Amino acid sequence: MVAYFNRRSVQVTLVFLVLIAVFSYTVFVTEKNYVLLSFIILTLVLLLFISRFESRRVSSKEMVFLAVLIAVASASRLPFVVIPNVQPVTFFVIICGIAFGAESGFLVGASVALVSNLVLGQGTWTPWQMLAWGLIGFTAGLLRKTPLLQKRPLLIGFGFVVAFLYGWLLNLHYTLIYVRPLTWEALWTANLASASFDLMHALGNGFFLAVFTTAFLKIIRRFQLKYGLVLPRDDGRSEP
Asked: Domains along the chain?
C-alpha cells in the first residue's frame, strides 16, 4: 500500500472522512442545522484539498498547462448538454488525476465545475459539483499507480462506478435542500429516480475511457516531456 499512496494524500483523505462522519452524525442523529453545516463542511473540504495543491511545488508551466486543460474540459461540457448526463468532463478529470496526481486532479475537477457553470448556470449545486468532480480527480490520482487504473477494463469500471457516486452526491444536495423531513427513504428514492441518468453518465464515461484514454495520455505525456513538467512522486516530492 505504501508503494501506491503518498503520506499527504492519505492525511487529506482521513481528514475528509472525519468531516463526513461529523456531517452524517449531524444530519441523521441530531437533525439540526444540517443545511448550513453541509455548506460549511463543503467549504472546509474544498479549502482542504486546494491547500494540499498549494503546498506542492508547482511550476508556472504546469499551472498554465492545467489551466488549458480546465478550459478544454469546461468547453467540452457545452456541446453535450443536449444529451442527458453524457459529458466528457469526468473523463478529462480522471485523465488529469492519472497524469498529474491527486491534488492536481482535484483542482481540475473542482475548477471545471465552477468555470463551466458560468455559462450553464450557477446555483447551490455548484459547490457539490466541484466536490464531486474534485473527488473523482483526487481518487484517480491516488489510485493512478494501482492495478485498478493501470488495466483498461478496470479503468472503465472505475469510470462506471464514479458516475453513480457523482449522481448520488448531487442527489444528497437535492434532498438536503428540498426534502422535509430528511430520511434515508427519501435519499434512496432520489437515487432510484436518477438511476437512468446516472447510467447514461456511466456509459458515457466508459465510452470515452475506452476510446480516448491512450491518445490523451500520450498527448499529455508529450507536453510534460517537451516542457519539462515534473510529476509528483509517491513521497510527495517531484520527479522529472
From this structure: 57-227 (1.10.1760.20)
